Amino acid sequence: MQRRKLMLGLLGLASGSGMAGAYLASRQQASSVSPTPMPSAQATGSSPTPPPPTPVPTATVVAHPAAPNGLFIPPRRDLRLLVISDMNAAYGSVEYDPEVDRGIGLIPYFQPDIVLGGGDMVAGQDPRLSEERIRAMWAAFDRHVAGPIREAKIPYGFTLGNHDASCARSTRGGFLFQKERDLAREFWNDPAHDPGLTFVDRGDFPFYYTFEKDDVFYLTWDATCNFIPPEQMEWAEAALASERAQAAKLRIVIGHLPLYAITVGRNDPGEVLLEADAKRALLEKYRVHTYISGHHHGYYPGHKGKLQLLHCGILGSGPRPLLDSPLPPRKTLTLVDVDFATPDITYYTTYHMRDLSVIEQAELPRFITGHNGLVLRRDVNWDALSPEEIATCQGRIGSLCRD
Ligand SMILES: [Fe+2]
Ligand SMILES: [Fe+2]
In what order do the strands lie in the sheet with 79-84? Predict the structure, then answer.
């Protein structure tokens, strides 16, 4: 109820702003503004009035101090996921870039059902950091991000990143960042930091676990380095194969490292999960809809085979350019609106954090050729590639140029 009241308040704001109103008109579907014709039966009174048609969801625009053209709010569908990632600043920092606070400050406008985090919440992966400093870093994360989400009573489903709790190992087999892993575990298992999730299997929380929310089954795995041990993969397969997972309306997997490389400076085997094709085949087998990842610091809405690949943008320090793209690097966050009844199911709205403008999908490259495979933009199918595009792709990655 509170949510609806707030939306009405925001709508009131929008209608009071000429600029926002004009922008709204340009974004709306014509069908959403045409008057509803009077049913003929009502005019004659000869039969009962038919029920009104289900309203078409409409987008709106609200005034926002950081959005010169107003803040575009996509139409509400069944569910709304707010996806944020890579929030840390320089090693050891207890500060956050202003875009992090700005992103969290948008929660009252977006009213998501859940917030999903792609990892790199604090600025670790540095053996020189003391326990005291790492605790201070997590406390800062709680002040800027986790605390406000918790206070808004919105669950926070996250995966850890290499800067939170890297799983990199020494030649003797131990974790290189055991202290950081211990302190990440300590922070997330403190009841004061309860992320408000409905766990299905706590697995080895916060490293890998499953949870449910609104008919969506979520699995997060420990992709804080490029190698996921076989026993964890067996756990993941059993979890995805379970009746509970299969009965859900949608399955989403979240891990920090992506399957395929997409940005400059991250086009390297250490920056993506090993055996990406085999992992993708596993996710496809159990009808996972989307793999959400961070780490590459660039937004790219992709797909490969039957799997949607949402490469989160970054809110913190160090945005990176996409491979083979002239676009400048930028910080973003993404809303994923879910409509179970439509073929696409998920609808992305991604904001440029500079001015909260919406990034048009068409401005992004139609495909990206990283060192370990081709990723197609989510609205581009393999069959739609031109002979020139296929030649370009093959020139870059040879036989890896396939869907
Ligand atoms: Fe990162
Ligand atoms: Fe990372």
Answer: 156-158, 114-117, 79-84, 332-338, 346-352, 357-358
pLDDT, residue 51, reads 72
Tell how far the Cα of 292 is from the centroid of ligand 1, in angstroms: 14
Residue 207 has pLDDT above 50, yes or no: yes
pTM of the predicted model as reported, rounded to 2 decimal places: 0.88
Whether residue 325 contacts residue 375, with contact meaning beta carbons closer than 8 Å, is answered with no
The residues that bridge with 175 in the sheet, in sequence order, are 169
**Rounded mean pLDDT of 225-239?**
98
**Domains of the chain, CATH where assigned:** 1-26+57-73 (no CATH), 77-400 (3.60.21.10)
C-alpha distances in Å from residue 382, one per residue of 27, 314, 342: 29, 28, 22
In angstroms, the CA 315 to CA 331 distance is 5
- From ligand 2's centre to the CA of 342, what distance in Å? 33
Measured in Å, residue 184 CA sits from the centre of ligand 1 at 16
What pLDDT, on the 0 to 100 scale, is given for residue 45?
45
CB atoms under 10 Å from CB of 399, counted, come to 6
Task: Please tell me the number of the ligand nearest to residue 297's CA.
Answer: 1
Question: DSSP secondary structure string, 103-118?
Answer: HHHTHHHH--SEEEE-
Q: Which residues have C-beta within 8 Å of that of residue 265, sequence separation ≥ 6?
A: 320
For the CA of 162, the nearest ligand: 2
Distance 232 CA to ligand 2 centre (A): 20
Give the Cα separation of 211 and 148 in Å (integer).
21
- Rounded to the nearest angstrom, the gap between the alpha carbon of residue 75 and the centroid of all alpha carbons in its chain is 18
155 C-alpha to ligand 1 centroid (Å): 22
